[in-house]
Amino acid sequence: VDPRDARSPCYACIFPPQAAFEEVQCSMMGVFAPLVGVVGAMQAAEALKLLAGVGTSLAGRLLMLDGRTMEWSTMHVGRSPGCAICAAR
């Protein structure tokens, strides 16, 4: 998500507030702590890239990590034309 990029989706484009998602709480399923660190480090690196203006942004791509195989998959996400948050911009 990069609000400076007109093509980048906002958070609500990816996860619409009115959508019903199956909510699984961490207290029930648990958290595999090392994966939290891996994803957090990736997010921090992306934030530093954006602040420094270097590299290619991941805006518009949703990266998903399969902790069992340690494989990343990517899903390209565009701005939703009917988004209540950013469609007016």
Write the layout of secondary structure elements.
Layout: H1 11-14, H2 26-29, H3 33-52, E1 61-66, E2 71-76
Antiparallel strand pairs: 1-2
Class by helix and strand content? alpha+beta
What is the strand arrangement across the widest sheet? Answer: 1-2
Mean pLDDT: 86
Sketch the topology as an H/E string, one letter per element.
HHHEE
Flag low-confidence runs. none
Strand content: 5-15%
**Approximate helicity band:** 25-40%
> Distance between termini?
15 Å
Labels describing this entry:
2 strands, two-stranded antiparallel sheet, alpha+beta, globular, 3 helices, 89 residues
Give a description of the structure.
The mean pLDDT is 86. β1 and β2 form a beta hairpin. The protein has helices at 11-14, 26-29, 33-52, and strands at 61-66, 71-76. It has 89 residues and is α+β, with helices and mostly antiparallel strands.
What is the gist of this entry?
This protein has 89 residues and is α+β, with helices and mostly antiparallel strands.
